[in-house]
Amino acid sequence: MSVEVRVPALPESVADATVLGWHKRPGEAVKREDPLVDLETDKVVLEVPAPADGWLGELHAPEGATVKADDLLVLIESATTATTPRQAAASSATATRTGAEAPPPAAALPQGAPGEAILTPAVRRLIKELHLDPSKIKGTGRDGRILKADVMSYLDNLESQTSKDEDLEAFAQPTPEPDIATKGMSGSRPEQRVPMTRLRARIAERLVEAQRSAAILTTFNEVSLAAVNQLRQRYREAFEKAHEVRLGFMSFFVKAAVEALQRFPVVNASVDGSDVVYHGYYDIGIAVASPRGLVVPILRDCDQLSFADVEKGIAEYGRKARDGELSYEELTGGTFTISNGGVFGSLLSTPILNPPQSAILGMHKTQERPVVENGQVVVRPMMYLALSYDHRIIDGRDAVQFLVAIKECLEDPARLLLQV
Fold first, then answer.
1. Residue 105 forms part of a structural domain
2. What is the pLDDT of residues 90-131, one digit of tens each?
3. Which of 191, 298, 319, 392 is deepest in the core (most CB within 10 A)?
4. Do 369 and 254 fall into the same domain?
């Protein structure tokens, strides 16, 4: 008996998906809930699990194919009808005869030389994208196979050893560049054409849309983080012991943004045709560079979250972003965005709006600089802030006062408690 594996229901507004990679090969044994294939959409990667035990049979969607909801992906032959991998692999002959290149049966796949790491296709791709050495990653799967969770655990351990500011960098991994192999190119001016991923193409589309449809203007200010640093140093250990999460910078910026948004509701609004929609809730997106590109997971109802809730939410989204586990729902919506280019060394930038939002806050690198306080020159940890906003509905006065409100809350964090 054959069990059909079909494309699951896609998120709203997503018309189709691309087959990113198969975890199993035809003829290979599978168990229920084993990951079979990754499907890439404009927003997220969907992992399709096996619905039953058996052997992987005929492939109907090779890697790179475009599929729609309910399209047939593959057949799983149950143990009663396909008792060996060779028998199951035979069912893929039809796809091969029609021109689809089906992978070889699992029995024919090389299992790796002694001491060599065993990698699934998805893990092999992830390791290649992140430029990691698989020999340094301990596999916890069957026969020492390296799982995606093993790669993420290795990255977490690596961060904890090398990060100078783990509170920020843990949520902003750099996007790896494509693996440009120039050795096989000929000529004095070699080139390589690399197709955009669906996510990268969608990012490009949205950025151009924002530039074309909104009147984007940016205002700047600078903030001293001395008071925030003192609070973090004073309460870091007690906070982590009480809440089992680190006290980072992002919770201060999120809470300061909520306070400023409450004072200036138009910054939390959006344009819908000829209407201005004012939102009575505060869903803040945190822009993060994942291995697949820029994503913006949303922290919902931030006005109702404690500092610990914000830190836990950010830590969880950071893990999901690195592991490619963010759901479509976690990436949609949002009334305001915070982007932190400082973790990559950016000193100043002009962030682009995340439509249909009307404003975005840009954080930058913290540097010790001489400043004048009470007539004296002192050294303070300073950060430049940038607020890009849609000038169609937000006046310059509101934008400047909004940024000043954030500055005041960060330089005197007691305001966040007293709401003054």
1. yes
2. 444 444 444 444 444 443 333 444 455 666 656 776 776 666
3. 298
4. yes
Distance from C-alpha of 108 to C-alpha of 28, rounded to nearest angstrom: 10
One domain, residues 101 and 139: no
Cα–Cα distance for residue pair 299/316, rounded to 1 Å: 11
Residue 237 lies in a domain: yes
Helices (H) and strands (E) in the chain, counts: 11, 20
Residue type for position 145: R
Are residues 356 and 214 part of one domain?
Answer: yes
Domain total in the chain: 3
Of 72, 88, 109, the domain-final residue: 109
28 and 15 inside one domain: yes
Strands, DSSP E only, in 60-164? 66-67, 72-77, 118-119, 145-146
Clarify whether residues 205 and 147 are in a common domain: no
Residue type, 380: R
- 291 cis-preceded (ω within 30 degrees of 0): no
CATH at 126:
4.10.320.10
Fill in the DSSP letter of residue 267.
G
Q: Annotate 192-217 with b (16+ C-beta within 10 A) or e (fewer).
A: eeeeebbbbebbeebeeebeeebebe
> In sequence order, what are the residues at sequence separation of 6 or more whose Cβ sits closer than 8 angstroms to the Cβ of residue 117?
134, 135, 137, 139, 144, 146
Output the furthest CA–CA distance in the chain (Å, rounded). 86
Classify residue 176: in a domain, yes or no.
no
Tokens of 195: 């197709």
| Bridge partner residues of 290 (DSSP) | 293
Q: Which residues on neighbouring strands pair with residue 353, listed in sequence order? A: none
Residues known to be catalytic: 391, 395
Which of 171, 226, 199, 168 is CA-nearest to residue 367?
A: 226
pTM for the full predicted model: 0.63
- Residue 78 carries which DSSP code? -
Together in a domain, 46 and 19 = yes
> What residue numbers bound the domain in which 130 lies?
110-162
Between residues 303 and 1, which one has the greater pLDDT?
303
For residue 122, give both structure tokens. Answer: 């998805």
Q: Are 40 and 21 in contact (CB under 8 A)?
A: no
- CA pair distance 238, 396, nearest whole angstrom: 41
For tokens 């600078």, what's the residue? 222
Taking the C-alpha atoms of residue 260 and residue 22, their distance in angstroms, rounded to an integer, is 47
Query: Which of 9-23, 327-341, 354-368 is predicted least confidently?
Result: 9-23
Q: State the DSSP code for 357.
A: B
